[in-house]
Amino acid sequence: MNIPAPYLLMLGESKDPLAIKTARGIHYWRPEKCMGQLRLNDEVPSLDLPDIDVQTATKEGAKTLVLGMANAGGVLAPQFVPYIVEALNTGMNVASGLHQRLDAIPAIAEAAKASGASLFDLRHAHGTLPVGTGKKRSGKRLLTVGTDCSVGKMFTTLALEKQMKSRGLSAAFCATGQTGILIEGSGIAVDAVVSDFIAGATETLSPACNTNQWQLVEGQGSLLNPAFSGVTLGLLHGAQPDALVLCHEANREYIRHMSDMPIPDVADIMELAVRLAKLTNPNPRFVGMAINTSALSEEDAKRYLADLSSQYDLPATDPVRFGVDNIVEHLIHVFEE
Question: Across residues 164-184, what is the average pLDDT?
Fold first, then answer.
């Protein structure tokens, strides 16, 4: 998928800040792509973008209406359909990360056909994906792996891309989830790919490239998550990572939504990731640890990170609080010098 920018971000009608996390992620990482926001009432949290309607956005050059809200079940609320149809009628494309397909709604499908605009269902990739080959390809790759879901893999990967580029390195973010795709403008939502093709999809996302280029593959799931380990393994084999970054949330005791399943030990995840990654890369190495320390005070967070760094002889940081320069510095030391 290649999604044209600039975007009009549709924020919906919920008062819950978490409901617009997709739009918030796009605005945080790619503000230059965001023309304005469409809120259906004044109580919807604002991204401090101009409030504009579909007609105004079209006149000002918006290319895609992005459904920047998330909801339980991933089903499009009926009251949003008229706004989508209006956007399509003006020639604007529409992108959605919801589970429900846009073209499954007759009014939307008819409007898209009439206008010639594109519908981007991020969780429903079109075309045929190959199976993985495991063949070594040129270039260098980094993959973020986690102790669980929602521990900061996307944020960490994007933070690494930004910092590496600031240091003059050639780095490209490879999006594997719906929010990442909207941020980057392209990618494959691998959690919606049939399991036999996840490794092949990952190879497609990170093809052979120049030997000095880094492809930074956004991680998903966790190798020791009983629900989502399959997508992680497919990414691990398809990415053929030279470098790995461990993502973890301090003080999380249980797998998300599984109160009877303790979070795996950091060392177990790291050992398992390296062992399994060797199937397609003979020498994968961890180059850092990215920790969500939001549950800790700043002083406790610094102490926690220092202990991890000492224990594993790797740079450890909270990308939100302290950035990722120490991980990039170590990466350069290991691979670039």
Answer: 94
